[in-house]
Amino acid sequence: MRKVIETKVRIEGKGDSKEKALNFALGNIQKKIMKDYKGNMIIRIEPVNVDVVEAMETSYIERFLFIFAPRERSKYRVVLEVDVKLFLLDVEEINFTKIEQGNSLKSNIFG
Question: What does the alpha-carbon distance between residue 92 and residue 29 come to, in Å, rounded to a whole number?
Answer without folding.
Answer: 24
